[in-house]
Design brief:
Shape: globular
Distance between the termini: 19 Å
Strand order of the largest sheet: 2-1-3-4-5
Radius of gyration: 16 Å
Largest sheet: 5 strands, parallel
Number of helices: 6
Order of helices and strands: EHEHHEHEHEH
Structural class: alpha/beta
Length: 148
């Protein structure tokens, strides 16, 4: 049995690479949003044309990015959502809710400072951890039934 895992959430650290590397040898396919911040912000206007109003600039980008995000979430067996310390990731919270509505197995990653703010998101998850390395341990257990 293999797993298709979507890695959603903050794009300012290399947590995705840590999980992918820790899952080496497991039958896991990873997908994620575009993590190049500038490309993600500007994809709509670059592809569809410039917008003088920042709202429409951002709106075009959000819509284009949503095509990738929806496909990734719908195809996933497991959705991992990481909330970082530096910024509020409203898009990550939206992805978590969308994944929960789709009935996806949800793993949430965040530090203790977010426990209260994310209590409803955490309640929808099957696992909550403060360490991305634990995600690899969960996936290994799910796939192989073994503990590190």
């Amino acid at each position: 049995m293999g797993l298709n895992v979507y890695l959603s959430g903050e794009i300012h650290t290399d947590w995705r690479d840590d999980i992918i590397n820790a899952c080496d040898g497991l039958d896991v396919t990873f997908n994620a949003p575009v993590t190049d911040h500038a490309a993600s912000d500007d994809c709509g206007v670059t592809i569809l044309g410039a917008e003088p109003d920042k709202y429409w600039h951002d709106h075009k980008g959000a819509m284009v990015n949503a095509i990738r995000t929806r496909k990734g979430l719908q195809d996933a067996d497991v959705v991992v959502v990481r909330f970082g310390d530096k910024y509020k990731q409203w898009n990550a919270a939206f992805d978590a809710g969308f994944a929960a509505a789709l009935g996806k197995s949800l793993i949430i990653v965040h530090g203790p400072d977010h426990q209260h703010a994310l209590k409803e998101v955490d309640a929808a998850a099957l696992a909550v951890t403060d360490q991305p390395s634990k995600v690899a341990d969960i996936l290994r257990y799910v796939l192989a039934g073994t503990l590190q």
